[in-house]
Amino acid sequence: xxxxxxxxxxxxxxxxxxxxxxxxxxxxxxxxxxxxxxxxxxxxxxxxxxxxxxxxxxxxxxxxxxxxxxxxxxxxxxxxxxxxxxxxxxxxxxxxxxxxxxxxxxxxxxxxxxxxxxxxxxxxxxxxxxxxxxxxxxxx
Length: 140
Fold this sequence. Notes:
Layout: E1 2-4, E2 9-10, H1 11-22, E3 30-33, H2 36-43, H3 51-59, E4 66-69, H4 76-82, E5 86-89, H5 100-106, E6 112-115, E7 136-137
Parallel strand pairs: 1-3, 3-4, 5-6
Antiparallel strand pairs: 2-7
C-alpha cells in the first residue's frame, strides 16, 4: 500500500509505484489518494484537482491494482480495512508516519514498512514540476 496526493502524475510517481510493486513477490499495489481536507492540512494548500478526480486518474494507472480514498479524520481505518502486508512510504513522506507500525500493531495489523528511494528528486518532485511542464504524464 502506498499513499500520496497525486495532483498530477510524473515519472517520479511511476517510479514510486514500480518500487512499491518490487517489494513483494506477488505484487498487488493499493494506492491511497489523500483527501482534499488532509492535503490542505499537510501542505497548507488545497490540491489543484479534487480528490475524486485524482482517484479516478490513479485507478486508470496499470501499475496500480486498486485505488482508494484515504481517511478524513483518522487515517488508520482505511489502512486496516485494506490489510496490506507492506506499506511503501515515499522518501519525503513525513505526515502520519510517526509510530505507524506501532499504531497498526495495536489494531492487530502486522505490517512491514519500507521507505522508497527518490527518483531524480531535483526534477521529479511535485512541488518542482509546474503545470504544463512536459514532465507531467497525461495518462499513466
